[in-house]
Amino acid sequence: MAGLSENPFASTTSLDKNPFEDPEPQPAHAPYDARMQELAAREQELQRREQELNQRAEYIRTHGRNNFPPFYPLVYHSIQDEIPEASRPLITQMFRLWLLLLVTLLVNMVALIFATIVGTGDGFRDFGVSIMYIPVIGALSFLTWYRPIYNGYMKEQSLYYYVYFFFGGWHILFSLYMAIGLPSTGSAGIIQTVIMFAHGGAGIAGGVLGALASAGWVIEAFGSLWFFRLIWAHGKAAGHSFDKAKGEFATHGAKAYFSRG
């Protein structure tokens, strides 16, 4: 039979071919090509990372790194880097006036501790209000009149000038109000100071602090008025107007106020 004549143990592999040889030899340059592809991929990754670092460095250079207030940085503040050279003295003085406000608020509070001890004014109510003034007036004054005019001189946009004009005017009135020193207002101004001196004893120390606070409020009022006049003249000379401010607000909205770009 034909089927019985076939050798079931016959190999289908040619005896002329080495069984230990790769069936399909790799080209000699294949490992080199793979290595080059790996190096190219690494180079692309390095270029991508370098681009990201450059973009980050450019952002920091352009927008700055938050550095103020020092104990909890929320905004970038650098008169030297952001304000034109001709305007730096004025903005520096405005910043010092804002710092004086913080000192005046602290002295005002301590003076009212003595007022509470000697029983002048409205006692604990005056003291409590004076404590509230420190964070509230401190933060609002920075956001509503100092920071706007800082941005105004940096960007020369009408919106910032008119925000400053509005809130800067209120700050002048508030400083005069605090300088008077009416009882129950949280102020150790002139009236409270006179009452503390009249009580003698611990009231003398309170009176001295009250006099310092009163002087601080007077300097705030008339210093702010002086700078208000200078800034108003500069704004008009630069061509800023209320119509331009309204147009900028209509175009950019709150972004124009809060952004630094």
Short structural summary:
Helices cover 71% and strands 0% of the residues.
Plain-language structure description:
- The protein is mainly alpha-helical.
- The chain has a domain at 83-258.
- It has nine helices and no strands.
- The protein starts with 29 loop residues before the first helix and ends with a helix.
- Residues 1-5 have low confidence and may be disordered.
Question: Ranges with pLDDT <50 over ≥5 residues?
Answer: 1-5
The overall pLDDT, averaged over residues, is 84
SS summary, helix count: 9
Structure class: mainly alpha
- This entry's quaternary arrangement is single chain
Helix content, binned percent: over 70%
Output the helix-strand order. Answer: HHHHHHHHH
**Overall strand count:** 0
Specify the overall morphology. Answer: elongated
How far is the N terminus from the C terminus?
97 Å
Largest sheet: none
Q: What radius of gyration results from the CA coordinates?
A: 37 Å
Beta content comes to under 5%
